[in-house]
Design goal:
The protein is mainly alpha-helical. The chain has a single domain (about 5-285), classed as Di-copper center containing domain from catechol oxidase (di-copper center containing domain from catechol oxidase), CATH 1.10.1280.10. It is about 30% helix and about 0% strand. It contains 8 helices and 2 strands, in the order βααααααααβ. It has helices at about 15-30, 30-40, 60-80, 155-165, 180-185, 200-205, 220-240, 275-280, and strands at about 5, 285. The protein has a two-stranded parallel sheet. Helix 3 crosses helix 7 (about 220-240) and helix 6 (about 200-205) runs antiparallel to helix 7. It starts with a strand and ends with a strand.
């Protein structure tokens, strides 16, 4: 029977407590840092040679869907009642509402060094030391809204521009495409400064701190953000019935994306699963 992923803003006190406890236990066991390492390992961009799977590629959505499922499985080994909540950043748009509450993710970082001082993931609590990252800092950091150069979270209209595109992705299947649902949602765009960050990417920028780089998994907000991104893929599929993951076949020899992206029926590293197999998750979970 499919379990339910709920809006973080609707969680009961008990549900929040159980989710936090399970996440802290996964961290204590050393499993959590392996998720950080995996995201670091697969954080490759257009400018790099070789296969791209997690970002700037069609497989951005199925890769993160499987990534979330792996973390959720780890949480449910601790407490079978726990599922990943999602953060609706089109509605909960300030640093004073869910998920930035004392009993869930905690709040913003302090001005001096962006260190998160409140909530269960604050360094001072002793349960959330950053062990794997791109800097030497051992504490979780955030800069919600970006104090020095403020930006806003994506709006419902921003999200709608992605959802209404009936095509999953288009050639050349990277961060430069201006059509296709995948990149409109992932959020690579033209322009300079904050105008170049859309939807998914813009949220990472808004949270700031640890969420800015390849080690963004160090902030538990990563999972709530990506659960909402995953929900958009689910909504897009329902809106455009019959629309499928693209490309259906891998680019041929001579194409600059040959062996650089994953086609629908190709294995999606590091797992033995294809995007095709991840398109329908209805038997595993659903969204409230």
């Amino acid at each position: 029977m499919a379990y339910v992923r709920k809006d973080a803003g609707t969680l009961t006190a008990t549900e929040k407590r159980r989710f936090v406890r399970a996440l802290l236990e996964v961290k204590r066991r050393g499993e959590y840092d392996e998720f950080v390492r995996m995201h670091l390992a697969y954080y490759s961009s257009d400018g790099e040679r070789g296969l791209r799977t997690a970002h700037m590629a069609p497989s951005f959505l199925p890769w993160h869907r499987r990534f979330l499922l792996d973390l959720e499985t780890a949480l449910r080994r601790v407490d079978s009642a726990v599922t990943l909540p999602y953060w609706d950043w089109t509605r909960d748009r300030t640093a004073t509402v869910a998920p930035w509450t004392e009993d869930l993710l905690g709040g913003n970082g302090r001005r001096s060094d962006q260190q998160v001082m409140t909530g269960p993931f604050a360094y001072g609590q002793g349960n959330w030391t950053i062990a794997v990252g791109v800097t030497d800092g051992g504490f979780l950091t955030r800069d919600l809204g970006r104090r020095r150069d403020p930006i806003e979270l994506p709006t419902t209209s921003d999200l709608e521009r992605a959802l209404k595109d009936p095509v999953y992705d288009v050639a050349p299947w990277d961060s430069t495409v201006t059509r296709g649902f995948r990149n409109r949602l992932e959020g690579w765009s033209t322009g300079r400064g904050s105008a170049s960050w859309r939807n998914h990417n813009r949220v990472h920028r808004w949270v700031g701190g640890a969420m800015l780089g390849a080690a963004s998994v160090n902030d538990p907000a990563f999972w709530l953000h990506h659960a909402f991104v995953d929900l958009q893929w689910y909504r897009w599929q329902r809106r455009h019935g019959g629309a499928r993951y693209l490309p259906a076949k891998p680019p041929g020899r001579g194409d600059e994306q040959h062996r650089r992206i994953v086609a629908r029926h190709e294995k999606l590293p590091p797992w033995d699963v294809t995007p095709d197999e991840l398109e329908d998750i209805g038997r595993i979970y659903r969204y409230a």
